Amino acid sequence: MSANANEQIPSLDSFPETGTPKHAKLGGYEFYKSIGSPQRIVAPMVDQSELAWRVLSRRYGSQLVYTPMINAKVYVQQNKGAHRVREAYFNQALKEEGAHTLDLGHLSDTDRPLVVQFCANDPTQLLEAAQSVQDKCDAIDLNLGCPQQIAKRGNFGAFLQEDWHLIFSLINTLHRELKIPVTAKFRVYESLEKTLAYAKMIERAGAQMVTVHGRTREMKGHKTGLADWAKIRAVKEALSIPVFANGNMLFPQDWRDALAYTGCDGVMSAEGNLYNPTLFQDMATDLASLSKQDGDHSGFDALRITRIANEYLDIVKALRTPTSSSALKGHMFKITRPALAIHTDLRPVLGKARSNEEAAGEERVAEYRAFVQELERRLVEDEKRAEYYESQGAPRYYVTPQHLQDSEDRSTRPEYIPHWYLQPYFRPPLNPPKEKGGTGQPAQGAAAEPATTQTGTSEVPKEAPASGVSTHALAADVPAAEPPAKRAKAPLATRVEEANTLKTLGNDQFGKKNYAVAITHYTDAIARLPPRIADDDEDEEDEGARRTVSLDEHLLFEEIGQLRVKLYANLAASHLKLVRAMLMQDQFDATIQASNEVLQEEPKNVKALHRRAVAHEKLGGWAHLNEALKDLKQLEALDQEGYVPTAFGPELKASIERVSRLVEAAGEQEKSEMLGKLKTLGNNVLGYFGLSTDNFQLSQQEGGGYSLNFVR
């Protein structure tokens, strides 16, 4: 939501008074001091700031940690499987989440101080959810910063910026009713004036601490750009409560500079913490010495990838609270990212690793441990090789933030760190500037700036066309069809952007019921993406032909995987719609194929399972109907886990009953047809001997088998 000269900013006086809480509790700086005056804070991260990661982060300097965002609406549901869903969000039964002391063999292990974050758009639901966990944490945080599409569809996070009075009501309800303080995390506006008015409204609503993410709602993905510390400083100066700064925390020196420049009470790290959970640890500061083979590296043991990976696995196995498989795999990929950019053959090994949440101890993480052991064996050898103490030629998309104390100091922000150490991830821009000579790669250490437009005191990336823009206008941005070989040479990030644009075109045509055209766009988008990384081991003769994956490409593959799932899901939906609209039976096979692609990436994708079941049922025959029944039974199992929407329950039950009858009938029909064909064949053969199949009697025995008896 952009501010302009004609846009009216709500007056602070248009909001009610803060009011007095029902329960006596600390607020503002008194509360901040009661939890230890934390300066180094780990952000709420969906499926990433889970208990095991919080424990690891605290061991390495984090003083306050937030839970992953919890959807209040889902959390308070009372339907079948709701308890399991709530425990997956925040496990209270095992009494480890929010515990003051954790018995993990480490003296300082704790899950406090802890802030539980919720997203919501209904004050009643938010209050009910918050009250259920208020005895297990120190504060409740309202998410006002999530910029993703799921937040737009659900009307929460940063998309509440259009409704300040609703935000006031959400915060004020918690302030008045809870026994603990309420806090908020929000993004800035392009307008500084509006940002300050927004922050003051949040304070007036009753927030006792705030975190300011110095980016606008539109700044995400490859359009992330730099957080505006100047706006964060202005918010800090305008409020009377503790303020945390969020954004641009990649190196340890960054958070020190952020504290100095913004004057904030603390700094919060999200992505920086994921790639280096020791970001807040006090250790030797000369990071440039890591690339000197004969240097003293003893002060950097905590940065060793395999040490941190093993320690994280130790925590996962020691906790009784299960760590989700998606969280575990996500952390392992991010921790080991630099090493996997060199040892690319280990990526599918990690990709195939599975955790056993039901098992205890080492068995829970055995496959991941085996991966780390093999990686460590290789990294020990790599440390002996002189060439690995020099850059491997990968581009370094580091954009120097404004207001650094010493932006030229390479000891704290080195050009190169060997791949056996934890290090920040620099998100590549969509179209990296070319070096002279047209190589398409920036010089080592170059600061590749995203395309930006200047607005006031801060630079923000150019916005993508809004969803309401005509597809004719969007079509101008779609590259013309190219030969596959030429297309494959395009920069990876550019191909992702092209695929996203084609997906937008496909969605537009789907909405207009032009399903055949939508299929064309989705298919073209899939063709823009690189092939999925194979899980199977490659032949030995292919070893030398493998292309080394760059540091930037490595992280792009995660985004590409998510985009591929969406495209195939949309493709399956389009084929199914086309069948219903035009009775084109051959589209059922295409629906099944597209759904298979989705389920290969996301085995619990409810929509893909349902679409595949529908297609199999429509194709008919015992084999297809049996596959449909398998999918429906899997949906029934997912329903028990809370994955299936409540409204779909009756339809699912009816579908299982219907398809079960169809399977039985189809089986009998195919059996009858088979016996008829066999009888015809038998009569043809037996006719030469003056006999027929009528001379033989087929009788079923008690055990289920059959006997063949001759009858004259």
TrEMBL record:
Keywords: Coiled coil, Flavoprotein, FMN, mRNA processing, NAD, NADP, Oxidoreductase, tRNA processing. Residues 427-470 are annotated as: Disordered. It holds the Pfam family Dus. Residues 441-457 have a biased composition (Low complexity). InterPro entries: Aldolase_TIM, DUS-like_FMN-bd, TPR-like_helical_dom_sf, tRNA_hU_synthase_CS. Residues 42-285 form the DUS-like FMN-binding domain. Residues 365-392 form a coiled coil. GO terms for biological process: mRNA processing. One of its GO terms (molecular function) is tRNA dihydrouridine synthase activity. PROSITE patterns: UPF0034 (PS01136). Its cofactor is FMN. Its EC number is 1.3.1.88. It catalyses: 5,6-dihydrouridine(16) in tRNA + NAD(+) = uridine(16) in tRNA + NADH + H(+); 5,6-dihydrouridine(16) in tRNA + NADP(+) = uridine(16) in tRNA + NADPH + H(+); 5,6-dihydrouridine(17) in tRNA + NADP(+) = uridine(17) in tRNA + NADPH + H(+); a 5,6-dihydrouridine in mRNA + NAD(+) = a uridine in mRNA + NADH + H(+). PANTHER family: TRNA-DIHYDROURIDINE SYNTHASE, TRNA-DIHYDROURIDINE(16_17) SYNTHASE [NAD(P)(+)]-LIKE. Belongs to the Dus family. Dus1 subfamily. This is tRNA-dihydrouridine(16/17) synthase [NAD(P)(+)]. The gene is DUS1.
